[in-house]
Structures are given as structure tokens and as C-alpha cells.
Amino acid sequence: MDIVVENVNCMLAARTPFYQKVIDRISLHIPAGQFVAMMGPTGSGKTTLGQMIGGLIPSHSGVIRIGPYRVNKKTDRRRLWKAIGFLFQFPEHQVLEDTVFTHIGAGLHRLGMRREWVSEQVKQAMEAVGLCYSQFKDLSPFQISGGELRRIALAGVLVAEPEILILDEPTAGLDSRERSRMLSYIKRIHDENKMTVIYITHRLEEALEYADRILVLDHGRLYADFHPCKIRDHWPRLERIGFVKTPLLRFIDALEKRAAEPLPESLYKEEQLMSFIANLSREDL
Ligand SMILES: Nc1ncnc2c1ncn2[C@@H]1O[C@H](COP(=O)(O)OP(=O)(O)OP(=O)(O)O)[C@@H](O)[C@H]1O
Ligand SMILES: [Mg+2]
User: Fold this and answer.
1) What is the dihedral of CA 277, 278, 283, 285, to 10 degrees?
2) What is the pLDDT of residues 230-269, one digit of tens each?
3) Rounded distance, CA 285 to CA 282, Å?
4) Where does ligand 1 bind, in terms of residues with CB under 6 Å?
5) N or C: lower Cβ tally within 10 Å for the chain?
6) What is the pLDDT of residue 282?
């Protein structure tokens, strides 16, 4: 289902002297299946917009549509609950059930689904995030590491088989090994299930590596919207709001300064850079 955001606003403390516009006239179209990275400085409105799309906070004006449904319409909300999975920042803080199994299957249990079916769904969701069902299902959340808990929280979102996944900084606070593990599971889930992913992050290297599109918010407005291959065109504007070049972008810049011709714009991922360098002739180097 496509996501359509039309002229949406969100205000805090409306009609008071402390009035603040957190989301300011944003319009967007996200086609089904796209992997979108949402970036921007702290306080720019990423979480707020993500939660508005997920139906967790209402917009004060404008319209958000998911496929044929309107997010804020009560009757449509009921149809939408299963379509959208939202992973909060630091979701492990909200793991409250006794065991991994009951945490992941809690929502399905509450709906009165058959136990065998719930077990199968939980098993599949755990396998999708690289957790062995028999090894982890009966453990208490207190017996496992923070990185595993993060993956369990992701499994708890995946278990309902949503079509749209909204992830609020899913790799924040993880060590580099757990971060790349988490990212590779998210990428695989996206590719295999053709899900739409809205991936909120401060990490430009993750956005460049995995996203089909980068949205940048600043002061509640949509500041930039581009394909990762256009990163170098957008750089001067991004720098103005505090973006810092990744080591890979710095390397590409240095290479470009020495190159006789401009480098191809498709050069923004590590793999592409490696094959570009491998194909350079001795004279080029
Ligand atoms: N419940 C709230 N009460 C008061 N202000 C809030 C609340 N939620 C958000 N804000 C304000 O709204 C603005 C946008 O916040 P939001 O959390 O969406 O930003 P963000 O881009 O996700 O930031 P971060 O990168 O730090 O997570 C900020 O100025 C924030 O202080
Ligand atoms: Mg946030």
C-alpha cells in the first residue's frame, strides 16, 4: 500500500503562548515497497512524523492515507492496525512479558488466535531476526543481551506480518557487530517480503548503504528528498544543517580531486567504490 502524506501539520501546546509547530506542511508520496531513510538533526520531527504515519499521534491538519485508508479515521484505523508495524526507539525498555515467546506472541494471543498458529508465527518472526526458537522462546527477557532484546522487539513487530515497517533508530546504542546484524536482517525482511520500510536514523552510512530514498527533515519541514546517488549534489545544503561526511564520502572526494574526469554519481557505496578502484588501470592510479 502506498503512503500519501498531504500538507500535514502537527502542533504542540496549540492555542497557548508555548505553541510550537513540530511538523510543518509536509507532503510526501512513498510507493509500496520503498526503503526510505528518514534523517535530520535532533528535534527536527522524525519521530513525530513517523508516529503520525503509524497513527500513533494525530495530525492537526492535512491528510495521511495508507492505500485506500485514512490514518486518522476511526473506522479505517481498525483496518490499518495490522498493516503498520512500529518499532520504538530503545524498544527493549518496553519488554514486559515473562518469556520471549509471550512477549512476541502477546498481541496475537490477545486477539484469541489458536496457540499452534501463534507458535508458528512467533517461530517464523524469531527466525527472520536470527534467533533460534527452541533456544530463546522460554528465556526471560532478563536473561538475554541488549542486542538480542532489540531483535526480539523487532520480531514482536514482524509477527503480525505488517506491510509497512516504521523503525525509529533501530541500531541506536548497539555495538558495530549487532548493528550490522540488525541491519542485514531488516534489509533481508524488506527484500523478501517487499515491505515498505521507513528507517529513521542519524547514520548517513546506513542510509546510503540500504535506502532507495533519503528524506531529510529540518525544523519540522521536508528539507531534502533524494536518491542516495544524488548525495554529492545535495551535500552543501546538508552540511548547512550539520551533516558530516562519512569516511567513504571523504575518500570519494579525495579521489575526485585527483581524477581527470568527474566520478560516476553511482559511486556512493563501499562495494561500488571497490569495484571502481579495481577497474582503474595503472595509469589512472
Ligand atoms: N511530548 C512532547 N512534549 C514536548 N515536546 C515534544 C514532545 N514530543 C516532541 N516534542 C518536540 O517536538 C520536536 C520534534 O521532536 P521529535 O522527537 O519528533 O524529533 P526527532 O527528529 O525524532 O529528534 P531525535 O533525533 O532527537 O530523536 C522537538 O522540538 C521536541 O522537543
Ligand atoms: Mg526521534
Assistant:
1) 40
2) 999 999 999 999 999 999 999 988 888 887 778 888 888 8
3) 5
4) 12, 22, 40, 42-48
5) C
6) 60
